[in-house]
Amino acid sequence: MGLFDLFRSSPQTVRVDTPVGAAPLRVSAPGKPWSLWSDGLGTFAIRSLQVMIVAAITAAVIIGIQQITVVTIPLVLALIFASAFAPVMTWLRARGVPSIVATLLALFAILLLLGAVSWLIVWAVRDQWDELYSRAQQGFDDLMAWVGTLPFDIDQGQIDEWVATLTDFVTSAQFGSGALAGVGAVANFVTGLVLMVVMLFFFLKDGPQMWAFVLRPFRGEQYERAVRIGDKTVSTLGSYVRGTATVAAVDALGILVGLLILQVPLAIPLAVLVFLLAFIPIVGATVAGILAALVALVANGWVIALIVVGVVVLVNQLEGNFLQPFLMGRTMKLHAFVVLIALTIGTVLSGIIGAVLAVPIAAVAWGIVQVWDGPDLPARWARPKHREVEREVQRELQRELQRELRRENG
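The structure assignment produced for this chain is given below.
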């Protein structure tokens, strides 16, 4: 027996052959070479190493995506629009419309909607943006002046520092305004737009065939899981876009009616901002309400400003409790804390575009977890425990067993 065999041997002692008649010789062997990794500390070290490897790979992927945003952002946007119009494509093909004709109809409809929204934004904000900004700034100054009249002392220097920090952040490239400056940025925008249209055309026309090609290497259970992931991704993104656009339109219309009744100036630009900011959950509605209240504060006074706040809160409550659950169902069953974390990460990584895309991406990730082990069976770690249900079942079984014993003894 060699030294290597001695270390590989599982017993703690090894018997060595000896001449006939001699007493057997037992040599103590050291423990298993991997025993240091099998105890609690070793398991923790291995798990920590795995976490670091996963974190490093994730960071490398994120950095790589940031380097080619001119491709990744159009790709995600094209996938989102294609998912939103997937039912339209299915409906057209089911009625015998040729694939190329159905694709062109859907593509023209998408471009027409985007063009109409862009024209509405430009038309509403072009001549009134300066006035909107000045009134909002004046309203903020009035609010700060009112804060200075409060009976308790507030450090004005600290407030000025916070305002300066917020202003620097909003006007910096991190928040997205820098993406519109410079010839290079404009060229990237045009390139991304053309690339998105081309990708959208192929997604609409050959999306199912492209996905079937991607699934070729998978077999058996892995293939079924990949099919579930694809279907869940398309349904989640489509439901999110359709539902969010409808909710945004209803929010904008409701707040527009309220502003017109209250005779608040710049009602149409404010309604357009409400529509756009509705695509950023939680934060968007808050920002839109603040802007509307500040404009009403300057133009109409405190009473109308408070009423505007009430209108914004009422519309948001109706949308959140009735309209959004009806339109989206369980698509966006994400906790508010998860939504805020996703918004923060998306904003830090990609500015405004990241804030818009962060929530649907998070919803897709959670949707994939929900169908990981079956159509209605989440991944094992994400399944609810149902401890109380299990205990009640056990109690019922015990009662049934006791009744059977009584019948047999009675």
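Interim note for the steering committee: The chain has two domains: 4-33, 69-145+173-392. Residues 4-33 form one domain.
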